[in-house]
Every structure is written in C-alpha cells, then in structure tokens.
Write a structure and sequence with these properties.
With 441 residues, the chain is of the alpha+beta class. The chain folds into 2 domains: 83 residues; 292 residues, Tachylectin-2, Chain A (5 Propeller), CATH 2.115.10.20. The chain has 3 helices and 19 strands. A hairpin with a 6-residue loop joins strand 4 and strand 5. Helix 2 runs antiparallel to helix 3. It is globular, with a radius of gyration of 35 Å.
C-alpha cells in the first residue's frame, strides 16, 4: 500500500497579486522600451533633417565661395591689367626723360609726372584704387604737357579711357568711358575741356543679370529730371554683351541699375553693345547700338525709339541702319552715334579691328533717326596719323557755346594694342554744306 501524497498547495491571494505585479511590470517595461524606441526614431529623423539642411547650406556656401572666387579672380585680373598699364606709362615716361624733345621742358613738370605715376603704380599694386585715381588726377596735366609730339593733337587725358562719351551740363563737361582702373564706368569732369579731374566710378554696382569685367561703351541721356546711363555688359553665362540702363539724379552718379533683364539683347545675333541715345526735334528719344554678328551674319548698326522714361524701348522691331561695305572697315562697324548737323542727319561710327592702327572713324548721311542711311563708301572721316593711331569709339557733342566737338580714343604712335592705353582726344568738328570734317585732318 503506497504512502499517501501530501496535499496540493493552494496559490491563494498572494500568488494572484504577485502575478499581477509581474504582468504590470512587464507591460510597463514594454511601454518604456517602446517610448525609448520612438524617441530614438524621432532623434534619427531630426538628425537626418539636420544633415539634409547642413548639406544644402554647404552646397550654398560652396556656390557662394565659387562666385566670390570668380569675382576676386576678375578683380585681380583687372588690377593686374591696370598695374601693367601704369608700369608701362612709368617706363615710357622715364625713357622719354632722355629724349631730345624733352630737354627743353620744365624738369619740375617732368618729375611731377613721374612721381605721380610711380605713386599711382604703388597704390594700385597695394589694392588702394581710390588713391591710385587721386594720384593720376593730380598729375594728369603734367603728363599731358610732356609729350611734345602731341602739341595741338587734341590729347586731353593721358590715361586709359576707351569708348569716350562727353555730356555737356551747363558750363561743365562729364566724360564717361569703358571699365578700367577707375571702375566699371569711368567718369572725369572738366570746366574747360582741357583740364580733367577723375571723379571715379559712375556705376559701382551692375545689374543683377550682368557679369563684371566688361562694362563697355557708356553714354548718358539727360531726360526730364533724370540722367540715364546706357552701357553694355556680359549677360549671365552666355558670354555675349547686352545693353542695360541705369539712372541717377546727377550726371556724376552714382547710377543705379535695378533691371532684371537687358534693355536690348540680340543673343541670336551675337549680342548687343555700344549703345548711344539721340533725341529728335520733337523730344522723341532713340537708341542706336550694334549687334556683334555670328556665323555668316556680320555686325549691324540698329536704331529704335525709346519709351518716355528712357529706360526701355517702345514696342516694335529695330531698324537696321548700316552694315559693313567699305574696304577700310575690314568687315566691322560699331560705336554708332546719330547726330543732327543742322537739318541733316549723320551717323558716325567706328570700323575695322579696335586693337590695330587700321581702326578708324566713318560717317554716312541718313534721312532721319531711323534711316535710311547711305551705304558706306570711300575713305574714313578720321584715321591714323602722325599724332595718334587707330582712332575710334567716337562721340559728337556741342560745348556750352554751341561749338561741335568729337571725342575719341586712340593709341599713341608706336604704342598700338594691349597693354598700351587708349587715351582721350578732343577735336573740333566743322560742318560745311552738311558735310562734317574733323579739324586737323
């Protein structure tokens, strides 16, 4: 007979409570772990968002660095060019000191010019553009008087001043030129057309669409209470030049360009440049300019009416005024300037390659501001001679007494092409029977 089994123990209330506690603990642990997992996921998502934002900021920063680097490179190239020009001028003047023609000059004048150019060279090399401008202004008259070969030639400003445009305001004169050491658009001022003071940069900031380093052929229109500066600049990344307009309440500027697109931009024809305004006897303003040409299409000179504000063209299509036709032009016409010569219209322009002694100024008669204009034939109006080489970039203006003048740039004899400077000349323009001639030719 087997021994009797011990009686089974009952779990009782204590066991039930213990089981409940363990179950609640397990549930609490699970909830805690889930909360921790959710928090971890949230941190990961936040980190990914932060990383994406940082990547975007980094890309933007890199783009900004590239843009800034490109601008610094362009500025450095501009400074280097100006520095080379100043060194060239200094060396030329130093060499000229021993020339027989200079032996009769006032040595104090010679030393004043040399010292000023030397100081401008040092200022430019040190990045102090304003001091360089001031140095050049201070010795401009001395340097001009030193070149004995230029007596009576019309040389008035012996520093780089390409594509000049002169504006008469009362008894004051303001001359504007393409970019060089003095800034995007150079500006100088005179009260007698002989002694000129460097003002500085008429256009410190370009339009948002324009690239720096190639702001060319400025011109200014006084319309109502505003002065409108027309200039050409590189359009974005296309590489072509396009025309823009900036405004100011004074002829000295600074001019402000808030445009988001060019006034005229014939990208299909190689770009648009060399703008010049004209106002007819009724007060209607016009703009003339050049298209560069591309492929089989050569350069063309154009005209179109401007709107009342002068900062945009009236709707319509431009009118072609002139294309190359004369042998001396070498397939190039540019720098148009429409002028009323007392009842007859004349279109002045430059032709041939700007960097050579073959560059010259031509003129054709026109029926009106929109043509038609006569075809170009015969010889140029103004060409290389003993006093200068490759004249061009002309603009015609009347002084305070109504006398007509032609402003133009030219190389000095034997100093044609880069890195030499295109300096500013002024010569009277005589009109006989509607036919213009430049004095001294």
């Amino acid at each position: 007979m087997s021994a009797p089994r011990p009686p089974r123990r009952s779990h009782g209330p204590v066991a039930v409570v213990l089981a409940a506690v363990l179950a609640v603990g397990a549930l609490a642990f699970a909830l805690h772990e889930r909360a921790a997992l959710d928090a971890t996921r949230a941190r990961v998502a936040s980190a990914r968002h932060t990383l994406a934002t940082d990547d975007a900021d980094l890309a933007s920063t890199r783009a900004g660095v590239r843009t800034t680097t490109a601008q610094l490179d362009a500025r450095q190239a501009s400074v280097a060019t100006a520095f080379e020009a100043l060194v060239t001028a200094r060396n030329q003047l130093t060499g000229a000191a021993g020339d027989v023609q200079l032996q009769q000059l006032d040595l104090a004048t010679l030393h004043s010019c040399l010292d000023g150019v030397e100081q401008a060279t040092l200022s430019e090399a040190g990045g102090d553009d304003q001091s360089a401008v001031d140095d050049l202004t201070g010795v401009s008259a001395s340097c001009t008087s030193l070149d004995a070969t230029q007596t009576g030639s019309g040389l008035v400003y012996p520093f780089d001043f390409p594509d000049p445009f002169v504006l008469t305001v009362g008894n004051e004169y303001y001359a504007y030129a393409s970019n060089s050491a003095a800034g995007n658009i150079q500006i100088i001022e005179s009260s007698d057309l002989t002694h000129w003071t460097t003002v500085g940069d008429a256009l410190p900031h370009l339009a948002s669409w324009a690239q720096p380093g190639a702001t060319w052929a400025p011109s200014v229109l006084h319309l109502g209470s505003s002065y409108i500066l027309y200039y050409s600049a590189i359009f974005g990344t296309s590489g072509e030049q396009c025309v823009s307009a900036a405004t100011s309440a004074t002829p000295q500027g600074p001019f402000l360009d808030t445009s988001t697109e060019p006034v005229v931009c014939q990208l299909g024809q190689g770009g648009s440049l060399d703008p010049s305004p004209y106002v007819d006897t009724t007060g209607q303003p016009y703009l003339t300019w050049k298209s560069e040409g591309t492929g089989s299409q050569g350069p063309v000179l154009w005209a179109q009416p401007l709107g009342p504000s002068g900062t945009g063209l009236l709707p319509g299509t431009p009118t072609a005024l002139l294309q190359p036709g004369a042998t001396w032009q070498g397939g190039v016409v540019e720098g148009p300037d429409m002028v009323d010569l007392g009842g007859t219209y004349a279109l002045f322009y430059s032709g041939n390659q700007w960097s050579t002694a073959a560059y010259a100024v031509g003129e054709v008669g026109c029926a009106g501001p929109l043509g038609p204009c006569q075809p170009a034939t015969g010889a140029p109006l103004l060409a290389s001679g003993p006093a200068f080489s490759g004249p061009g970039g002309e603009s015609v203006f009347a002084d305070a007494q109504g006398t007509l003048w032609m402003a133009f740039h030219a190389w000095l004899p034997g100093e044609v092409g880069y890195p030499h400077s295109r300096v500013l000349f002024l010569r009277r323009l005589t009109v006989t029977g509607g036919v213009p001639t430049v004095d001294g030719t």
